[in-house]
Each structure stands twice: as C-alpha cells, then as structure tokens.
Amino acid sequence: MRVFALLLMAPMIAFAEDTPVNAGPYVPSPQSVVSDMLKLAEVGPQDFVIDLGSGDGRIVRTAALVFGARGFGVEIKDPLVRQSNAAAAREGIADRVKFIKADLFKTDISQATVLTMYLLPDTVNLLRDKLLAELRPGTRVLSHDYPLSGWIPEKYVQMDLEDKVKISGVTTTLIYLYVVPAKVEGRWQATLPDGTATLSLRQQITRVSGTARYRGKDVPLEDVKLRGERLSFRMAGRELAGRVSGAAIEGDAGAWSAQRVK
C-alpha cells in the first residue's frame, strides 16, 4: 500500500517541481522610472535586455522602442504575457522582443547584457547565485528598490516620485546598478617586463584583495578593483591593469599577462 501511495504521489511531485515559482505580486515600475533605469545602465542597440518578472512588459518594450535594444521578459501570469506580446506587436517591435511564461529561477538568462528586476527583497537575494553562475562578466544588473546583499553597486540613485505612492505608500525610489564580476579567486602566475610574480587573490563577489610573491618577497596588492572583466591593482609601486578572460589576464597594451594556476 505504501509503495502504491508513493506511485500515486509521483506525478503530483513532478507537477509541483515544474510549476513556476510565484516570486510575488505584480507591482509595475512607474514609467517615469523605466527610462531612468535604462539610461543608468547605458542601454543601447547592442544590448540584450532580460526583465525578470516583466509584468506588462514596459521595461523590455521601452528598451526596444527608445534605446534600440532587443530582449525578452519572463512572467508567470498568462494575461500579462499575452498583454505584453500584443503591445509589442502593436508597437512594431515583436521581431526584437518577446514575453514568455516561465519560472524566473529556471529561465536561462545567459544571453543578457543587461538584466532588470523589480522583485521582493527575498527573491532578489535568492537570485544571487544564479546571476553569478549564468551571467557573463560585465553584464549590468539593475534592481529597483532592493539591493543585492554582498554586492557593491557600481552606481546608486535615489529619487522621490509621486507615482510610487500608490505602489509602495512612499515617494522614495531607489535604483541599484551592479556589474557582474569575473571570477578571479585563486593563484595566478604573472609575467612582467622584469620577471614573474605569483598572485594570490581572494574574492567576495565584487570585493577582491590579495598578495604577490615577487622577487622572493610577499608583497600586498593595493587598491584592488574589479569591474566586470577589468582588474586593476598596485604592486610594489607599479600600477597594473588588464582584462580577465576565463583562466587568463591580458594586461593593457600587452605590458603583462597572467595565467591561472590550478
């Protein structure tokens, strides 16, 4: 009997696992905020914008209509998905944007160059690992009102808007802009014009610190900054900067390079 009961439950469990997670009620970003968000991220025709919890589609549609971008929105409510796609068709941008019914936690977001969200704070922070795992370094992430815990914003804007009163009861509006960092944790063998150095880097999302073994001595790395793929620091009185690409760092103007040590 117990085995029979489990067999009966199996389809129900599978259905529950496939059911999209509701990340909260539909609360639209005021249209007066949408353009400001996209301007803050410097969205342009080269960008692919993904909006998690896209509602009526206004963010992705504005990105296409005003800034020439492409993209898609993820929403779990059928009426809003239909409304968004119908609006895109009327506006003549259906070839550049689309809206899908899906679970935002399971949607592939790797195509994004800009990702936007206006979600509950718990949902925002449940997405942190997904953002780091799927988004490419340099991708801009815009969060309306709620910050990503542990991330240092590239830019932060606070403004007062009367439109927000009917949404949140206050005029305060916050926009956080983050840039997805490259993964630099670990040891790197650097080739410099006057020799070599072994870099040991420690990383907490966007914060990086470390030391170098250079000319037989351990020296600290100072003023270490990581913005997307761009890494810069001071070592033994010299300024070094370059672009991180997977397991390699290419120094500016070919002045130095580094390879990750396994």
Query: Which regions have little confidence, pLDDT < 50, spanning 5+ residues?
Result: 1-22
The CATH superfamily of the largest domain is Vaccinia Virus protein VP39
CATH architecture descriptor name of the largest domain: 3-Layer(aba) Sandwich
Helix content: 25-40%
Round the Cα radius of gyration to an integer and report it: 22 Å
Give the total of beta strands. Answer: 15
Could you state the order of secondary-structure elements as H and E?
HHEHEHEEHHEEHEEEEEEEEE
Order of strands across the biggest sheet?
8-9-10-11-12-13-14-15
The structural domain count equals 2
Gap between N and C termini: 53 Å
| Largest sheet properties | 8 strands, antiparallel, barrel
What proportion strand? Answer: 35-45%
Chain-averaged pLDDT: 89
Q: Number of DSSP helices?
A: 7
The computed structural class is: alpha+beta
Task: Classify the fold: give the CATH topology of the largest domain.
Answer: Rossmann fold
List the helices and strands and how they pair.
Layout: H1 2-18, H2 31-40, E1 48-52, H3 58-67, E2 70-75, H4 78-90, E3 97-101, E4 114-117, H5 121-126, H6 128-134, E5 140-144, E6 155-160, H7 165-168, E7 172-179, E8 186-192, E9 195-204, E10 207-214, E11 217-227, E12 230-235, E13 238-245, E14 248-251, E15 257-261
Parallel strand pairs: 1-2, 1-4, 2-3, 4-5
Antiparallel strand pairs: 5-7, 6-7, 8-9, 8-15, 9-10, 10-11, 11-12, 12-13, 13-14, 14-15
Helix pairs in contact: 2-3
